[in-house]
Amino acid sequence: MSTSDNKITIGVLAVQGAFIEHEHMLQSLGVDCIEIRKPEQLDQIDGIVLPGGESTVQGQLLRKLHMLSPLRKMIQNGLPVLATCAGLILLSEEIDNGEPAHLATLPVTVKRNAYGRQLGSFCTTSDLPQISGFPMVFIRAPYIASTQESVKVLGTVDGHVIAVQYKHQIGLSFHPELTDDTRIHQYFVEMVRGTAKSNIA
Amino acid sequence: MIFTHNMIPAAANTGTGKDYIMKQTQYELNKGLAQMLKGGVIMDVTTPEQAKIAEAAGACAVMALERIPADIRAAGGVSRMSDPKMIKGIQEAVSIPVMAKCRIGHFVEAQILQAIEIDYIDESEVLSPADDVYHIDKTEFKVPFVCGARDLGEALRRINEGAAMIRTKGEPGTGDVVQAVRHMRKMNSQIRKIVSMQKDELFEEAKQLQVPYELVLYVHENGKLPVVNFAAGGVATPADAALMMQLGAEGVFVGSGIFKSGDPAKRASAIVQAVTNYTDATLIAELSEDLGEAMVGINPNEIKIIMEERGQ
What ipTM does this complex have? Predict the structure, then answer.
């Protein structure tokens, strides 16, 4: 954990997928990042990004590399998380096709490959609270089929929930890291700074 | 337009207005899918059962084909796109992306693969080429393409034709990694050379490589290809996979190496973990233990058909 309240380190889960894109975005905001591939690396972070990729692969690697339960515990204890696409699937309490859940800290049910195969991938622009006109890239994306009451819905596209927040966990169906728009990452960084501060206090 | 970074004037550079934007957006989505596959292993499978083994072992995608390259090589003759029914069976068996191969230049095989909603088409030298001059105009397709390349010129020519992902050609079906290493090293050394050039030297370099100036300029400014670059051809062990990653591959295709080995599930899982932790020699040592028989492999000097020379 950081020792001063404005110097934070954000981990980016780097077992598989588009993690470098998140690092570039966070670095452009002046934040230090480390790639997370081993449990001991988790000790150094104030927040974590779960990137896009294949959730089946990432879920298995979290288990095989002995990171699933330590990371789950850290999130339950307040570690801020930004999860995109496959990351959202890792975070969800339930996967609608009955697959076993992974971190299962976000009380939602997620539908995998909800828009079909690659031909169903698309881009659109939609609003989030205080962030208007955010460019959204959906690639073989999931959406959130249902949420528990305590979960705040941040955005919908075509009637489906595609962005939620539950306490310090943000789950997105789309890929802000594939665009030039840093507003969501900025929001997350501020959230991590807030938590880091309160941890010290 | 949503994707503002990384825009390159390759692919879909024809047409105007709405059509242009739609094509460009589709191309960016297709490059994006390749970005999601990074750090992963794409495995050749010939049956739904193998596809399930591959998915359970951690494959980030599977390549559906009737015969793996080692068997194509052994059988000889003309090798074509797989039976769509067989590919559909694999699509139904797994939740990860499914790729399939068409012959170089065979745009109707590609149309068929698009019609069955394949996630990625590999315009592949492993199959017999259908056209000895032209590759497919991949800008005319919505479905993304991956193409093989032995050097930077080939890679950029394929990208200019609309490929959204590149892989080294290697020499498929041999279990010998030497060609993939050669191709990856060559591509990276050519990239380093372009990065260090003066801007006014890029015009001549574009001429030498037989590619558009804009693509050479992209490489000069970014020090990488404008699309994801995987290693393919001859990867048979966790060490081979980690070697390719340390040489700069962004992920790995494993063809014959898995299902031609003694314990496919164990080997597949070991290769997946080696790709994630490709610099951790202690872990790779553990992963390399007791994997059973590796594919026997054949030395490229002993073979008659050199697939890497197909399609330049």
Answer: 0.91
